[in-house]
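FAQ

Q: What does a record look like?
A: Structure on top, sequence underneath. For example:
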């Protein structure tokens, strides 16, 4: 195998054979050993330095070391430097010939030029040939010039050192080949690592650009709450939360009412690190005119074992949206109040007209009756608008048998159900005592039953169920009506929302009943949800705490006592 067959070999060999380092490192040990032997010769080996052959070899070794240091080998052809190890064989042959009787075994010094040759840029066959020839020169030097058949054993022994050095050379070659392969693998992995590092840096730049472009504040924290990644938008929010100077503690966190400080354990980062996942949580940061409304969402970051290693929090500035919603509520409330008084007056005068002693003609009485019904309808709509415009429905809970409330609501809606050809059925344990406002919960049941009857086909069935656990009461209203999609079910509690199928069917309604229902349920500390499937019906579930879940103000208590 030729060492020059590898495309990368010349570059690697040239790198290794820089005479300023490797050449001197190969020559220095050889020179040092020879100098030590020669300096200690007068004491330990008398007569060694007096041999002219040995002395010639000694001075040749010193000259070769000087040449290694002085000559600018890097400016000469690459293989010229190999003259040094070849001349080392000559010097070692002189040393061995001159010191055979006093210091045997000097032929082993051939190991140094062999190592040099095997690590050179020569093809493997040339390096091994030089190794064998140089070693044979060392052992055959004393035998040159004469041939004695009686010394055949001596001639055969001269082949031992070349054979040993040949084996050493082959071993060095294979070890060098393995080292080269490892070096090549290391270089390849180093190149791959550099490429990966460059790609990671490029991705980080792109990610940073994206993070700083979006108008959503993003924060990533580790398991201890230390920030590991953030963007410019989030830094603005952090400065608002820190105060006017932007360097104080994050104390300007407030709840949805804009004034109640948010405790540290209810802030988004802390909640996410405890494993909580949430979205669309409203918090306010800052104070005064600079206060901003943030819609926050958070997700914990978990490792493969399920342990929490950090969290990601996203904050969106929705100040303008919140202010627009508040302005809409104020507008609806004002308009509703403005409508309420004249409508009440209109209804009063219409009743007076109908109750007057002078009977109206039948057709005029019919006109007045129609006007009265439509005025009442508008008045109910105004009342619904007023209910939804407020921040929260006020309730006055007291101990009530919920089963009796359910039965009363079912009874009041039975006539409407019969007109629509819909059957009503209840499934509730009695009694079912809990702390609720019976009028408000009756309103909830009436809204849910009215919708179930309205959207059920003729012959349909509406079932009202109630069940109690240790901590809550679940109230279900099931129908087998037209149903809704999952997306429509998520929006059904929004004010003025009506499903496309309801609008196509021209079913009466303003889209306020379920919004009012949700407000009443939440005022009791409960929740309401909807599961539905198109064409299969809907289920509305109201969950109420057993204790009522309502914190009553002193003013509410005073009103009850009055």
């Amino acid at each position: 195998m030729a060492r020059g067959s590898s495309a990368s070999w010349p570059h690697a060999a040239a790198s290794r054979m820089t005479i300023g380092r490797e050449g001197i490192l190969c020559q220095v040990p050889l020179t040092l050993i020879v100098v030590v032997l020669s300096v200690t010769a007068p004491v330990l080996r008398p007569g060694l330095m007096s041999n002219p052959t040995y002395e010639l070899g000694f001075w040749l070794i010193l000259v070769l070391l000087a040449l290694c240091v002085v000559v600018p080998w890097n400016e000469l052809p690459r293989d010229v430097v190999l003259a040094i190890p070849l001349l080392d064989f000559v010097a070692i042959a002189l040393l061995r010939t001159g010191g055979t009787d006093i210091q045997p075994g000097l032929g082993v010094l051939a190991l140094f030029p062999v190592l040099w040759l095997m690590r050179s840029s020569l093809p493997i066959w040339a390096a091994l040939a030089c190794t064998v020839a140089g070693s044979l020169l060392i052992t055959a030097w004393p035998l040159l010039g004469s041939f004695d058949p009686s010394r055949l054993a001596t001639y055969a022994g001269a082949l031992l050192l070349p054979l040993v050095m040949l084996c050493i050379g082959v071993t060095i070659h294979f070890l060098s080949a393995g080292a080269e392969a490892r070096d090549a693998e290391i270089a390849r992995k180093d190149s791959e690592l550099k490429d990966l590092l460059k790609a990671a840096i490029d991705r980080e730049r792109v990610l940073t650009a994206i993070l700083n472009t979006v108008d959503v504040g993003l924060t990533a924290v580790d398991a201890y709450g230390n920030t590991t990644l953030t963007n410019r938008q989030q830094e603005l929010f952090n400065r608002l939360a820190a105060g006017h100077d932007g360097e104080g503690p994050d104390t300007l966190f407030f709840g949805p009412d804009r004034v109640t400080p948010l405790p540290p354990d209810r802030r988004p980062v802390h909640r996410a690190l405890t494993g909580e996942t949430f979205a669309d949580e409203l918090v306010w940061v800052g104070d005064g005119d600079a206060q901003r409304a943030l819609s926050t969402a958070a997700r914990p970051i978990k490792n493969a074992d399920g342990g929490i290693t950090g969290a990601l929090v996203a904050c969106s500035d929705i100040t303008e949206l919140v202010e627009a919603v508040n302005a809409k509520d104020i507008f609806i409330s004002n308009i509703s109040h403005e409508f309420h008084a004249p409508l009440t007056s209109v209804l009063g005068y219409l009743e007076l007209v109908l109750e007057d002693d002078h009977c109206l003609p039948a057709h005029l009485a019919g006109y007045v009756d129609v006007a009265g019904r439509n005025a009442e309808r508008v008045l109910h709509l105004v009342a619904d608008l007023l209910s939804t415009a407020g921040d929260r429905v006020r309730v006055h809970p007291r101990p009530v048998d919920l089963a009796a409330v359910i039965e009363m609501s079912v009874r009041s809606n039975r006539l409407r159900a019969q007109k629509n050809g819909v059957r009503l059925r209840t499934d509730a344990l009695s009694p079912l005592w809990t702390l609720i406002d019976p009028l408000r919960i009756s309103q909830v049941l009436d809204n849910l039953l009215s919708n179930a009857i309205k959207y059920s086909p003729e012959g349909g069935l509406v079932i009202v169920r109630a069940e109690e656990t240790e901590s809550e009461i679940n109230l279900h209203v099931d129908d087998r009506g037209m149903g809704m999609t999952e997306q429509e079910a998520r929006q059904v509690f929004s004010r003025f929302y009506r499903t496309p199928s309801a609008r196509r069917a021209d079913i009466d309604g303003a889209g306020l009943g379920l919004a009012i229902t949700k407000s009443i349920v939440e005022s009791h500390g409960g929740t309401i949800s909807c599961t539905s499937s198109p064409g299969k019906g809907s289920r509305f579930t109201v969950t109420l705490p057993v204790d009522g879940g309502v914190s009553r103000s002193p003013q509410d208590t005073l009103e009850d006592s009055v």
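Q: Is there anything notable about this one?
A: The chain is about 55% helix and 15% strand.
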